[in-house]
Design brief:
Blueprint lengths: L21 E3 L8 E3 L4 E7 L4 E6 L2 E6 L5 E6 L5 E10 L2 E18 L1 H4 L8 H6 L3 E8 L17 E3 L1 H5 L3 H14 L3 E7 L11 H6 L1 H8 L2 H4 L3 H17 L33 E4 L1 E2 L9 E11 L8 E9 L1 E6 L2 E6 L10 E6 L7 E11 L5 E2 L7 E4 L7 E2 L2 E10 L18 H7 L9 E5 L8 H19 L6 E4 L15 H15 L3 E4 L15 H15 L11 E8 L2 E7 L5 E3 L7 E4 L6 E2 L1 E5 L2 E5 L8 E4 L10 E3 L3 E2 L3 E2 L5
Parallel strand pairs: 2-8, 8-11, 8-24, 9-11, 24-25, 25-26
Antiparallel strand pairs: 1-3, 3-6, 4-5, 4-7, 7-8, 9-10, 12-23, 13-20, 14-19, 14-23, 15-18, 15-20, 15-21, 16-17, 16-19, 21-22, 27-28, 28-33, 29-35, 30-31, 30-34, 32-33, 34-37, 35-36
Helix pairs in contact: 4-12, 10-11
């Protein structure tokens, strides 16, 4: 009888997964842009030890895969042009990427004002229709938080056409369009942004560890970031308690909508009597109108349908609604937007109203808005709200103004979540998940629109942002590439008297970083904001000014990218004379006399000042301050009428002469 051999018992270590025969990093797809005029890295995986050959535009490069299968080849520099094919070969396997351009690649990063899509910009419909630029290519990095550095991304490059551009970063698009027009080279834009996030999340761990000025920011969370089981056990317990605290008497969790109760009460019906419902101004966020709640609120508005519209299909436009809505016309539901819609809080509502609902005379529009946290209500501009014919005939019926409203459901106050490794505010989390995977892809530079979330901690922002920029540059290993910063726009109510401002101090930190880091640049946005909208719709001006800064900093076209920058002050009797750099064709006061200047004596009590341009200087004074010691310009959350510019219509950088060293 043949003897059989029994296998040894025990647990076998699973074999490491074998890399695919030949694979490219996720940034390498059809329609991509490779950075021109410099050696370009191309990388991926192959069989360990295999030789890989890359060919592009008549150039070739070889690499050998390491023991882990990773390889990286460096293509010789290629001038701007294309389209070309990128071909990769290894051991008989071949990859071919088509319609690849050689041009300039820019990273577009930051929080919501960088993330804000073209479809939400000023004149969005016209701009989207005109967004046909085949030599501009767009790539959006998927949102991802990670406790450790990631190495890959997933997604396509897309040629710039209306469908691709409408959801892309508006600032990024307008920046790229302006560069394309000025330089006549292909432009690649990589959008890696996430609304509401702080600069800490976009900074790498090595930078925190190496820089004493910001190490404390990292230390606040170091236990949670460690692999210590006790630390993670505490975090998980805190997270469970937080989730438990969200339950209300109806057993809802995480501020989910328990269901539409108002509809059953007839609140959508045109026959419902809403005479006792108070009025509320629309558009607007109700938290900013004195109603600080999360939950469901109904809005009703009567309109008069013209006889010529009877039986015709209509379009009901309500602008963005934060967070969700169900919308009715004459009691019939015409549309709703929920979690399934990307960027639901900023998505413009446009609902088709069928002709069977459009009878001449009185009609009632009812909107149920559910807000699960943060702002709630209508977030658009007044002109976004209208009822119009689908065929474009006749004048639209404007809907901005007073609407009747009633609270259906008020949720308990939502406590703050514990800050853990899966939170987009977590230090390093977005760098690891969304920036590190791009390294070392060839880039020309980066544009950055962020700071609103850090405004209350402006004192540390200068060191933090400078360190973050240095960390990105070290990771890329491509030298001190240009880094262009958008300064915070004007926002919130205008101040009646001069005073302190977190937003002004954050703007100062941004300007200081732009001036002090090598190859930094600044785009001033102090004149494009709005008191009631943290997301200015004028992204065109921001993109154009970033492009001007790029032409100066990245392309050496001379000092065209900045408005006047304060240099020094000198007292002349009862007045201060202010001197500036970057005056270009001369100083001008846009739209009338200079405004938004303040002056103070040794006591530091600021008052509004008179100001006048004299050559390339500004003289400021006030009869209330006979011995002036300091002056400020546009030093407020929303400075009223800040209008100092250079002749080329670039606004002056807000400043204070009494800035700490």
């Amino acid at each position: 009888m043949k003897k059989t051999t029994r296998a040894k018992t025990g647990t076998r270590r699973p074999a490491a997964p074998r890399p695919p025969a030949l694979r490219l990093h996720g940034l390498f797809t059809d329609r991509m842009v490779l950075q021109r005029d410099r050696a370009a890295p191309v990388w991926g995986t192959a069989r360990p030890g295999a030789e890989v050959t890359v060919r592009f535009a008549g150039r070739a490069a070889c690499a050998r895969a390491g023991r882990d299968g990773a390889w990286r080849a460096w293509l010789p520099p290629v001038p701007a042009g294309g389209p070309h094919e990128l071909r990769v070969e290894s051991e008989g396997a071949r990859l071919r990427l088509r319609d690849v351009l050689s041009g300039d690649v820019w990273i577009c990063s930051g929080q919501s004002n960088m993330e804000w899509p073209l479809q939400q910009a000023r004149d969005a419909e016209r701009e989207i229709a005109a967004a046909r630029h085949p030599a501009i290519r767009l790539f959006t990095v998927a949102r991802r938080v990670s406790a450790s550095p990631c190495t890959d991304v997933d997604g396509p490059w897309r040629a710039c056409e209306p469908a691709a551009a409408s959801g892309f970063s508006a600032v990024g698009y307008f920046f790229g369009r302006a560069l394309r027009e000025a330089l006549d080279v292909p432009i690649g834009l990589i959008n890696a942004s996430w609304g509401g996030t702080p600069a800490e999340a976009w900074t790498d761990a090595e930078t925190y560890a190496a820089d004493p000025a910001i190490r404390a920011l990292f230390e606040r969370q170091r236990r949670l970031m460690s692999a210590d089981p006790a630390a993670m056990k505490k975090y998980n317990a805190d997270l469970a308690r937080w989730k438990s605290s969200l339950r209300d008497p109806d057993r809802q969790t995480d501020h989910d909508d328990p269901g539409n109760r108002g509809y059953g009460k007839g609140w959508a019906s045109p026959d419902f009597d809403d005479a006792d419902w108070p009025a509320r101004r629309v558009p607007g966020y109700w938290e900013q109108q004195g109603m600080a709640i999360d939950g469901a609120v109904w809005f009703r508005r009567e309109v008069e349908i013209p006889a010529a519209w009877a039986g015709r299909d209509l379009v009901l436009a309500l602008g963005p609604i934060d967070d969700f809505d169900e919308t009715y016309v004459n009691g019939a539901r015409v549309g709703a937007t929920g979690l399934e819609t990307p960027g639901f809080w900023a998505h413009p509502r446009e609902y088709a109203v069928p002709g069977k609902l459009t009878k001449a005379g009185r009609a009632v529009i009812a909107v149920r808005v559910f807000d699960r946290g943060g702002n709630g209500g209508f977030g658009g501009r007044p002109e976004c709200l209208a009822l119009r014919r689908a065929d474009g005939g006749g004048d639209a019926i404007p809907l901005a103004g007073d609407w009747k409203h009633r609270v259906e459901l008020q949720l308990p106050q939502r406590p703050a979540a514990p800050l853990g490794p899966d939170n987009p505010h977590y230090p390093c989390g977005l760098y690891n998940g969304m920036i590190r995977p791009l390294v070392p892809f060839g880039v020309r530079g980066a544009i950055w629109y962020q700071g609103e979330t850090n405004a209350s901690r402006h004192a540390e922002y200068r060191a933090l942002l400078s360190a973050m920029i240095g960390g990105w540059r070290r990771a890329w290993g491509q030298g001190e590439f240009p880094f262009l910063i958008v300064q915070l726009a004007n926002y919130m109510a205008a101040a009646a008297e001069p005073g302190e401002s977190d937003w002004a101090a954050l703007r100062e930190a941004q300007a200081q970083v732009a001036q002090r880091v090598p190859h930094g640049g600044l785009a001033v946005a102090i004149d494009v904001g709005a008191a009631d909208d943290i997301h200015p719709r004028d992204k065109q001006s921001v993109g154009a000014r970033l492009a001007l800064a790029a032409r100066e900093v990245a392309y050496g076209e001379g000092p065209v990218g900045s408005g006047p920058v304060f240099r020094r002050a000198a007292r002349e009797g009862d007045r201060l004379r202010l001197f500036f750099d970057h005056t270009g064709g001369g100083l001008v006061a846009r739209g009338g006399p200079l405004k938004s200047f303040a002056i103070a004596g040794e006591d530091g009590a600021f008052v509004w000042a008179e100001a006048r341009i004299e050559g390339d200087t500004v003289v400021v004074w006030s009869p209330r301050v006979p011995r002036p010691a300091a002056a400020r310009y546009a030093w407020a959350d929303n400075p009223a009428g800040a209008n100092l510019c250079r002749a080329e219509d670039l606004p002056a950088v807000p400043f204070r002469t009494d800035a700490p060293a």
